[in-house]
Structure formats: structure tokens, C-alpha cells
Specification:
Elements: H1 3-10, E1 17-23, E2 29-39, E3 43-47, E4 52-56, H2 57-61, E5 65-69
Antiparallel strand pairs: 1-2, 1-5, 2-3, 3-4
Length: about 70
């Protein structure tokens, strides 16, 4: 999948609640629930209760990050 296509798919969901799963090394998985805050050409940001995390579209393509709309 192309990063431009992913960005276009995320744009209508700006401001919605999302769950983000980040798959790390040694089967470690981190889950975050927040709001899809900003969508930039190379990254998108998710606002959590106490911080803002940024993720790249390449992380979605490589399946290192998974995003679910809730």
C-alpha cells in the first residue's frame, strides 16, 4: 500500500477516537487510546491523555503499528 493512499484514508477520520497497537521487539505490544489529532504528509499524530505520539505511514505499511477506529 502506498503512503499517499493511507493518508487519504485517514483524513476523513481526523478528530475521531482511535486505538493504536505498537508491536515491539520480543513480542511486546503497547496499546494506546487517543484522538487522531493531525495528519501530515509523512506522519500522523495521536493525542493521548497526557502526551502526543507520532507515527509514520511506513510503520502502518510494515505492520509495526496498527490503528483501529473506535
Amino acid at each position: 500500500m502506498n503512503p499517499l493512499v493511507i493518508r487519504e484514508n485517514l483524513l476523513p477520520h481526523k478528530g475521531e477516537r482511535v486505538m493504536v497497537k505498537v508491536y515491539g521487539m520480543r513480542n511486546k505490544t503497547d496499546k494506546f487510546i487517543g484522538t487522531l489529532k493531525e495528519i501530515y504528509p509523512q506522519i500522523f499524530t495521536v493525542e493521548l491523555a497526557d502526551s502526543i505520539r507520532s507515527f509514520s505511514y511506513s510503520e502502518l505499511i510494515s505492520k509495526d503499528v496498527e490503528i483501529t477506529f473506535i
